[in-house]
Q: What sequence folds into this?
């Protein structure tokens, strides 16, 4: 397993290299700013690798080890296209950073011994990844078979796991550590983007996040909800940078993260629609062009992240769980209206359950009210809107679901609320800029 | 985490009381050195302090989880998913030797399986065990893997063999070649 973990490190180094190429080409960092861009770059690398790999699988590429390396190197070549970029320094972490690092180390030890046990992971996420690697790509006979659970779910996570299997062999025990790397990168992204713009207390939020029992439970599950939440949180943060600072590199990365979210899970599509709509609406108050750019980035991301896979799914007559037809079917909505209060209550209970997220969600609610009272209304409203509309999108999904409502809620709600919580936790501190009269970091020269 | 048991009320209360004591002592010791805080920082500090009360409970979860997972043997590590669904990981292993690699299969479960979650997960166990053989609708499949139901009641099968004998409350797994 130790040799396999070196393989896992190697494939993740390739994702990081790919991400550094993407962020450099986007104009996110330059020169030594690389050290302050590792978290964002890694997640951008995973997102773009997953989206492109899904497209390549659909057109028949096997994604052998050499092809994985080649794709990552092509993306990494973006470092040669570096553009003018602001200086990005890694903030000092202090006590909170030490606490986060200590908890992450404990988590890594725990995950090292964790087998593959979560239902969704062993029934379809990992079998799909195994099939991609073992059958040399997207074998239609296997992927369209009727006994495969969630056949319509997109391929980003299986593609990333399959890339890992190309280097580690079929070693399922390491998948939890892959999820751990996503979370490490996400917390690093928070330190890189959010912490320099906000007050010192913001560093407490990653501590609460990493201590949350739900995070430990989900890291041990190797499912797609944490990567989805990471992409949605990063999309929300880069969307904010476009809205507030007109950072063009952030707009490009917003598109990358939206595409990654849409290609990760069916729930990613409504989350991307929400994040895009909220930032387009917020930007519209200042400039129609900025709003249009945000909307276009979200729309292109959806098309790239979803369309190729949906076309493949349609071509193989695979029924889709997430259907626009169902959520607009008034007869169904009326027939299943009794589900709304059940789902709303269940979601609220999961959101505010201290056994899952400690006091993170009540804290975010209190801070939203405080930001409102202190005239930081724009950002507070945007942060709360992203979280609220994502939860409402989930409510709509449960309302129109084809599954028995109590079963569906019990098996998924505790996980799918990750994305709105993470996005809220990333956006809300930005309503409290550093110092009472602090200016936002200057927009970079483009 | 797979190995965390449900804590008893007494254990939970004890762990939270310990956490409250530690936070109270920490606050008393650091009170005079705390800088003046704005309202937003005070709200965050309060939430953090209250959350830290749960620290012993969080630590207990890690310890219990590691106590379980570090004692798993190779079989438990490889089959933790099916085991969580009350399925022995080897339940369908014998079918690999019978179902040809280019064949297709369908599964069927019946009420004789006492655990609903096991019934639900059984097709996935067959899928993983018989990889890379794909499944097919019963009318098109060449083999039927039946559990808790007589395969002859699901499809016209030419010969039925036992892939795994009855195991305690679990009924036998039966294999039938679908007749054409």
A:
């Amino acid at each position: 397993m130790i040799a396999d973990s070196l393989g896992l490190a190697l494939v993740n180094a390739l994702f990081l290299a790919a991400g550094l190429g993407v962020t450099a080409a986007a104009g996110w960092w330059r020169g030594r700013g690389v050290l302050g861009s590792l978290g964002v770059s890694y997640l951008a690398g995973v997102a773009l690798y997953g989206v492109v790999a899904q497209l390549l699988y659909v057109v028949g590429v096997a994604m052998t080890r050499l092809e994985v390396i080649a794709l990552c190197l092509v993306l990494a070549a973006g470092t040669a296209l570096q553009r003018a970029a602001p200086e990005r320094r890694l903030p000092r972490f202090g006590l909170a950073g030490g606490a986060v690092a200590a908890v992450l180390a404990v988590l890594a030890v725990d995950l090292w011994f964790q087998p593959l046990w979560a239902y969704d992971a062993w029934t379809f996420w990992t079998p799909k990844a195994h099939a991609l690697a073992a059958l040399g790509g997207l074998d239609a006979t296997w992927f369209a078979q009727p006994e495969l659970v969630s056949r319509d779910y997109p391929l980003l996570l299986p593609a990333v796991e399959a890339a890992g299997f190309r280097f580690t062999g079929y070693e399922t025990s390491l998948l939890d550590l892959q999820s751990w790397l996503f979370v490490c990168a996400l917390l690093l992204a928070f330190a890189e983007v959010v912490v320099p713009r906000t007050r010192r207390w913001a560093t407490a939020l990653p501590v609460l996040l990493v201590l949350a029992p739900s995070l430990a439970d989900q890291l041990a599950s190797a499912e797609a909800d944490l990567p989805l939440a990471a992409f949605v949180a990063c999309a929300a943060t880069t969307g904010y940078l476009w809205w507030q600072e007109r950072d063009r590199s952030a707009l490009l990365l917003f598109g990358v993260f939206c595409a990654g979210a849409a290609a990760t899970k069916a729930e990613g599509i409504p989350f991307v629609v929400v994040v895009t709509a909220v930032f387009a609406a917020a930007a519209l108050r200042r400039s129609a062009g900025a709003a249009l750019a945000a909307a276009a980035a979200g729309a292109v991301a959806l098309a790239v992240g979803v369309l190729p896979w949906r076309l493949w799914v349609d071509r193989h007559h695979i029924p889709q769980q997430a259907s626009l037809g169902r959520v607009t079917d008034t007869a169904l909505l009326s027939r299943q209206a009794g589900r709304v209060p059940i789902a709303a209550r269940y979601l609220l209970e999961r959101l505010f359950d201290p056994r899952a997220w400690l006091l993170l969600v009540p804290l975010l609610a209190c801070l939203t009210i405080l930001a409102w009272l202190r005239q930081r209304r724009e950002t507070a409203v945007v942060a709360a809107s992203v979280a609220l509309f994502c939860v409402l999108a989930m409510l709509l999904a449960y309302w129109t679901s084809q599954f028995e409502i109590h079963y569906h809620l019990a098996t998924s709600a505790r996980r799918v609320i990750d994305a709105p919580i993470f996005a809220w936790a990333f956006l809300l501190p930005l309503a409290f800029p550093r110092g009472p009269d602090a200016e936002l970091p200057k927009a970079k020269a483009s | 985490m797979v190995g965390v048991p449900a804590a008893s009320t007494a254990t939970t209360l004890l762990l939270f009381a310990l956490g409250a004591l530690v936070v109270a002592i920490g606050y008393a010791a650091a009170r005079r050195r705390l800088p003046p805080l704005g309202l937003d920082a005070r709200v965050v500090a309060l939430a953090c302090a209250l959350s830290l009360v749960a620290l012993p409970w969080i630590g207990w979860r890690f310890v219990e989880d590691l106590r379980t997972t570090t004692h798993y043997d190779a079989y438990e590590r490889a089959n933790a998913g099916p085991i969580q669904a009350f399925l022995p990981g080897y339940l369908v292993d014998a079918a690999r030797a019978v179902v040809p690699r280019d064949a297709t299969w369908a599964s069927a479960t019946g009420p004789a399986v006492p655990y609903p979650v096991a019934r639900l997960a059984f097709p996935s166990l067959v899928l993983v065990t018989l990889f890379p053989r794909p499944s097919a609708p019963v009318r098109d499949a060449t083999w039927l893997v039946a559990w808790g139901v007589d395969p002859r009641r699901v499809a016209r099968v030419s010969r039925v063999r036992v892939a795994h004998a009855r195991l305690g409350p679990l009924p036998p797994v039966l294999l039938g070649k679908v007749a054409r």
Notes: Residues 81-178 of chain B form one domain.
